[in-house]
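Worked example 3 (structure in, sequence out).
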């Protein structure tokens, strides 16, 4: 009896477990259903934009002054006065007196030289009068001798004494000019309109001739040396015929710099190219000149922020865009270019492989020459291999 009860209990447990399992299976959620993927791959494309005009030649460089000089006195002496403009960052004008050396010694030298000139002038007058008297006496003597034709000695006519007096006056006049020049040089002037980079002079200090007391650079223009490959340099028309400083046939260029989180630009031009390759980088140095660098730059973004447009600062690292030769071209993102200089063009969901010539690459854009059809877009991503006639599904994600 006990055995039968035990077996019935086990059977009940098994039946209950099976019932619970059936209920759990029936109550489970349905798995998500997904559509069968299409065999046509999806690709991201970008517009193939037509363009015409100068091809941009881009490079980078550091802004440097057009001219920079060390300000050095030409005479030695104690500094008596220094202009308030002669400080780091000070702005000076051409011909402006920047410092004066104590002129007392030079004034004394001028007075002494002027006195010597006066004395030698009297000596010359005396020698001229003595020579005139000697010539008159000789003429009287010759007439008494019956008009003798003998040539008189120069000493008789006092010609050497007269020449010595003239030489003495010339020497004293030259000494006066030297003394006056030293006095003039005791005032040191700015050679051009410029900005003071550094200075190391104060009133009361002693300056030696030839000792640098300040460094000044010109502010009428600055230069940027842009290293370019021979391929980029070949795109600049008339590069090798440029005359430095000439205003004829200037090649436009633009210098772009970032300041306060914004980008600003200044217009300039290509001034010259150095006719020697850099021995290390094998590049050609093209010099771009920017007139009036202290004018505020033009903002390149329309963001309305309070950043004040800055001047073009010396020593700043900048981007330079030069107008290359004019051409008709197509513009695509650089990543659309495939190995072998090909573009996978899509129109009406059909791929066409287009051979292209890469004219120039600037930033994220590539400038191409190739036979594109109306409405074709360039494949950016989505497929690794393409053939003519291949079907794809296109979107315009590359235009965003």
């Amino acid at each position: 009896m006990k055995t039968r009860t035990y077996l019935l209990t086990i059977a009940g447990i098994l039946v209950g477990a099976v019932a619970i399992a059936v209920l759990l299976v029936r109550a489970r959620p349905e798995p998500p259903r997904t559509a069968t993927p299409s065999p046509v791959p999806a690709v991201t494309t970008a517009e193939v934009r037509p363009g015409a005009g100068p091809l941009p030649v881009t490079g980078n460089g550091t802004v440097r002054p057009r001219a920079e000089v060390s300000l050095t006195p030409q005479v030695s002496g104690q500094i008596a006065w220094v202009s308030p403009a002669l400080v780091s960052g000070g702005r000076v004008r051409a011909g402006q007196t920047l410092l004066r050396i104590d002129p007392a010694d030079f004034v004394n030298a001028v007075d002494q030289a002027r006195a010597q000139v006066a004395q030698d002038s009297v000596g010359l007058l005396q020698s001229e009068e003595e020579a005139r008297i000697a010539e008159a006496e000789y003429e009287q003597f010759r007439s008494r001798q019956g008009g003798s034709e003998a040539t008189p000695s120069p000493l008789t006519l006092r010609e050497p004494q007269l020449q010595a007096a003239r030489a003495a006056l010339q020497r004293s006049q030259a000494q006066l000019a030297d003394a006056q020049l030293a006095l003039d040089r005791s005032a040191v002037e700015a050679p051009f309109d410029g900005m003071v980079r550094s200075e190391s002079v104060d009133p009361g200090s002693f300056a030696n001739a030839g000792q640098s007391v300040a460094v000044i650079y010109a502010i009428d223009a600055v230069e940027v040396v842009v290293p370019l490959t021979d391929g980029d340099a070949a795109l600049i028309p008339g590069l090798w015929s440029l005359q430095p400083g000439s205003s004829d046939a200037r090649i436009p260029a633009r210098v772009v710099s970032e300041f306060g989180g914004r980008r600003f630009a200044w217009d300039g031009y290509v001034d010259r190219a150095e006719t020697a390759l850099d021995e290390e980088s094998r590049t050609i140095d093209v010099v771009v000149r920017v007139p009036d660098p202290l004018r505020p730059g033009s903002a390149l973004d329309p963001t309305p922020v309070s950043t004040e447009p800055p001047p073009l600062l010396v020593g700043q690292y900048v981007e330079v865009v030069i107008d290359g030769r004019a051409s008709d071209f197509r513009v695509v993102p650089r990543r659309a270019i495939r190995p072998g200089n090909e573009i996978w063009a899509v129109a009406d969901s059909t791929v066409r492989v287009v051979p292209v010539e890469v004219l120039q690459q600037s930033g994220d854009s590539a400038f191409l020459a190739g036979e594109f059809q109306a409405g074709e877009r360039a494949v950016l991503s989505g497929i690794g291999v393409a053939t003519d006639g291949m079907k794809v599904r296109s979107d315009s994600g590359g235009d965003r």
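Notes: The mean pLDDT is 87. The first helix runs from residue 2 to 27.
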